Amino acid sequence: MRYNEKELRALSQQPAELAAELGMRGPKKGSVAKRRLVKLVVNFLFYFRTDEAEPLGALLLERCRVAQEEPGGFSISFVEDPERKYHFECCSQEQCEQWTEALRRASYEYMRRSLIFYRNEIQKMTGKDPLEQFGISEETRFQLSSSPREGQSAGVSSQLDELD
């Protein structure tokens, strides 16, 4: 996936689906948890120093695994590099569950599967493909019902800067 730093910084300033100050540890061995403002915007997880407007970095939430760790904590790792984990510490177990659920729903692949599911349900109920009314071509509809092409939702993690 390609994006430029200017677009990424602009996206980081958009309203967040979820935002909070969390403890965050990067994937480096021996790193310690630091308080970071963490914002979920579409399928990017941005993290900031608590007193700055510019993000320190961003994680693209594609082909990733979100797992609850110790009580009140969760981690994010990526299929391509499962040993590279980002750890987050929440204020409560409730907050942790809220974050893990939101992060699992944030990926393109989750949204794609949901679209296919609801499209099929509507088609069963009405006998019509709901996408026809929007003039979506046969080719596009075929892509929605088949598996994604290689690289279409490749998971990457991107840092604007490395965690301090």
From TrEMBL:
<dbReference type="InterPro" id="IPR011993">
    <property type="entry name" value="PH-like_dom_sf"/>
</dbReference>
<dbReference type="GO" id="GO:0005829">
    <property type="term" value="C:cytosol"/>
</dbReference>
<dbReference type="GO" id="GO:0042147">
    <property type="term" value="P:retrograde transport, endosome to Golgi"/>
</dbReference>
<dbReference type="InterPro" id="IPR045188">
    <property type="entry name" value="Boi1/Boi2-like"/>
</dbReference>
<dbReference type="InterPro" id="IPR001849">
    <property type="entry name" value="PH_domain"/>
</dbReference>
<feature type="region of interest" description="Disordered">
    <location>
        <begin position="141"/>
        <end position="164"/>
    </location>
</feature>
<protein>
    <recommendedName>
        <fullName>Pleckstrin homology domain-containing family J member 1</fullName>
    </recommendedName>
</protein>
<feature type="domain" description="PH">
    <location>
        <begin position="15"/>
        <end position="108"/>
    </location>
</feature>
<dbReference type="GO" id="GO:0001881">
    <property type="term" value="P:receptor recycling"/>
</dbReference>
<dbReference type="GO" id="GO:0005769">
    <property type="term" value="C:early endosome"/>
</dbReference>
<dbReference type="Pfam" id="PF00169">
    <property type="entry name" value="PH"/>
</dbReference>
<feature type="compositionally biased region" description="Polar residues">
    <location>
        <begin position="142"/>
        <end position="164"/>
    </location>
</feature>
<dbReference type="GO" id="GO:0055037">
    <property type="term" value="C:recycling endosome"/>
</dbReference>
<dbReference type="GO" id="GO:0005802">
    <property type="term" value="C:trans-Golgi network"/>
</dbReference>
<dbReference type="GO" id="GO:0007032">
    <property type="term" value="P:endosome organization"/>
</dbReference>
